[in-house]
Amino acid sequence: MNALPGLRDGRLADRRLLETGRLARALAALNGEGEETRLVGGAVRDLALGEAVGDFDLATTARPEVVMKRARAAGFGVAPTGLAHGTVTLIIEGKPIEATTLRRDVDTDGRHAKVAFGRDFRDDALRRDFTINALSLTLDGIVHDYVGGLADLVDRRVRFIGEARLRIREDYLRILRFFRFSARYGDGRLDSAGFEAAIAEREGLAILSRERVRAELMKLFVAPRAPQTLAAIGEAGLLQPLVAGQTDWARLARLAAIEAASETAPDPLLRLGALCVRIEEDSERLRERLRLSNAEAERLAVVARGLADLHDGETPPGLGALRRLLFERHRQGALDALALFHADSGAPPNDWRFARARAFLSATPEPTLPITGADVVARGVTHGQRIGATLKKLQALWIRAGFPREPEALARLLDEALKP
Fold it and tell me: Which end of the chain offers a freer environment for a tag, N or C, measured as fewer CB atoms within 10 Å?
């Protein structure tokens, strides 16, 4: 097995996290007197890969009441956030660390599990979802691997622990987690046993809350191999039911290539738009299906309206069309619409014309109509309804004229708008 960058001979190469800081303090407080506590899960995986870690989860033989007693004695804040499942949150240096008593599942229904406390780290590892998430780290820096997770990290393989269909039936969200972790840590190929199990157990996705589905999809959208993974999910027929509509993973792949060419960080909501949004009604469907916030749904609606504007014009859009887009859809909406229009256009990801258009939208101040209702009133219009109609007509004339700001040009436009 090739070496992982964060490990040396099965030990953590850089042990500073275990010697100073809040993790070291937590482990020191909970270890000893017959109890053992380890760092577990994703943090160990990422440390083995040599990546930065911000969140820590601990597994311990100590029962919750012992954890709370020791934490308070060490001066930590304590929040009993999940006592039914053995979880206590320690507040150290103003940041949380979750400590969970070792446990085993007694019963599961595909969404929730009844657990019993235990004292065996191997049993705790065997109840986790994937081999790469079942690693644990002791205070001496040794990484404990009971299921071949380190070898799978080297091979960039995401694999269920044990029989994949049984693990999925314990929590059907694991189908989406399988795809997300494969897109993040895999090499582009999906583990065949896991993929076949996900397809076989697909009906279980229907019992998941829309909030949980949304959270997993948003994380999946920004993973390094999201386009390839979403294509595989879509071709297997698993994607459309999640969003209650048609999907276009090839369009999302083109957007991802454009983002890479422009060195733009992936945006999960815009990628959702690339996958699912063609018309404004799609945003409302996604709001309901994925429990989007009002702001998120409105952003997708603006994208759809902006796309409609652009598809009615030339490719790529000229400066006049871009100014109008910036005025009507504002900067975020204009940039979003341009990105999806680029993806729809068939132009290369690094097309210089679209790069120039993107730079224009990024740097140009948003146009604002330089005439207000007070200016209309000053010309003798007093009825509120007529003031609004005049401003609307004036705005259309101003856009058609190319957004002039010279007083003479504005006066002529206002004269024309005031005509019956």
Answer: C
**118 Cα distance to chain centroid:** 34
Question: At 210, phi and psi to the nearest 5?
Answer: -65, -30
Half-sphere exposure for 223 (CA within 13 Å, toward CB): 25
The total domain count for the chain is 4
**Same structural domain, 43 and 5:** yes
Are 164 and 197 contacting, i.e. CB atoms less than 8 angstroms apart?
yes
Identify whether the C-beta of residue 245 lies closer than 8 Å to the C-beta of residue 285: yes
* Domain end among 367, 390, 407: 367
| Structure-block tokens of residue 330 | 């504002």
Answer yes or no: are the C-beta atoms of 154 and 4 closer than 8 Å. yes
Considering the domain architecture, whether residues 11 and 108 belong to the same structural domain is answered as yes
Residues 121, 124, 125: CA angle, nearest 5 degrees: 90
Residues with Cβ within 8 Å of 133's Cβ and at least 6 positions away in sequence, in order, are 41, 42, 45, 149, 181
**Full domain range(s) for residue 188:** 159-242
The predicted model scores a pTM of 0.88
| Unique residue bearing structure tokens 């506590």 | 37
Domain edge (last residue) among 242, 262, 297: 242
Preceding peptide of 367 cis, ω within 30°: no
Contact of 154 with 132, CB cutoff 8 Å: no
H helix or E strand, kind and range, residue 231: helix 226-235
* Whether residue 57 sits in one domain with residue 22: yes
Q: What is the pLDDT of residues 107-131, one digit of tens each?
A: 555 555 566 889 999 999 999 999 9
Distance, in Å, from the CA atom of 221 to the CA atom of 187, rounded to the nearest integer, reads 16
- pLDDT by residue (tens digit) across 319-343? 999 999 999 999 999 999 999 999 9
Q: At residue 106, does pLDDT exceed 90?
A: no
Largest CA distance in the chain: 91
C-beta separation of 133 from 42 below 8 A: yes
What is the torsional sign of CA 17, 23, 24, 30? negative
Report the 10 Å Cβ neighbour count for 232.
21
* Cα Rg, the chain, nearest whole Å: 28
Assess whether 82 and 125 both reside in one domain.
yes
For residue 54, pLDDT over 90 is answered with no
Same-domain status, 43 and 8? yes
